[in-house]
Amino acid sequence: MLVSICIASYRRPEGLRRLLTAIEQQRFTMEEPQVEVCVADNDPDRAGSAVCAELRENFRWPLRCEIEPIRGLSSARNRSVSLAANDSDFLAFIDDDEEPTESWLDQLLITQKHTDADVVGGPVLARFAVDPPQWATAGAYFSSERMATGTELPFAATGNVLVNTAALRNLPGPFDLRFSHSGGEDTHLFIRLRQRGHRIVWCDEAVVHEHVAAERINMRWVLRRGARSFGTYSLCRRELGGWRTLPMSLAKGTVRMAIGVLLLPLALFRGKELLVRGLLQISQGSGRILGWFGRLPAEYSEAKVATR
Hints:
Layout: E1 2-9, H1 13-24, E2 34-41, H2 47-55, E3 63-67, H3 73-82, E4 90-94, E5 98-100, H4 104-115, E6 119-121, E7 124-128, H5 134-139, E8 160-164, H6 185-195, E9 200-202, E10 208-212, H7 219-241, H8 246-263, H9 267-270, H10 272-292
Helix pairs in contact: 1-2, 6-7, 7-10, 8-10
């Protein structure tokens, strides 16, 4: 078995170094697979390439790195996929601001073996650079939801996922370039895979920690991310389902905004925690409606990508 770990990197050399160090520390209870690491450096200053060049000679597994000159998430992810060997059995995606636990890859592979799913996703848990405010930890806004291993999912995310390469055959890209600067390229891919009959399941033991920078730990970032994530999901549904998805997007977006408006007065008694929850509902609802019409912020544009 050959597993290709795919990483898209942009101006996070220390984060990439930390990630690669953690990848070298992977331990296996099942028969150890062959592993290769494929890094796409989206930084014109080649900071990620320098890290890979420094570590390559003594790295535990083959370490490949190439520059992707076209800015954007889809281009960088596609480049990392192109670096994988032709006979690779699985692609494992993880981001350069994350750090996997020692059993991360082992657990993904075990769950794939037990469920025979084509895609296995796992939790991404926050590790804060500074102590977060109480409302941030109470709402768990920076960590993914936890659920039982084996739970079927409608889609997955590239922050922590294992994909059977056979499922990607005849899929150009495989990440759609239209989502390069808005994000949602992973949602679009995994919804397409689900529509083709490929199963997506959860592995709660395959834990990855995301290092959350201090500048992200604020209400504005949470609300912006909520609007964007719901917006890109809605746009993906429109792209793949057409006009018939509009009534559901309008209805669910309106209901979510209404719930948010109802929560706001209660914030007078419950404080900022409930205020953020209400505003987030409004942001997510409006994002779902506006996203269907293609109104998405260019969160990963040249000007903004450095703070993603």
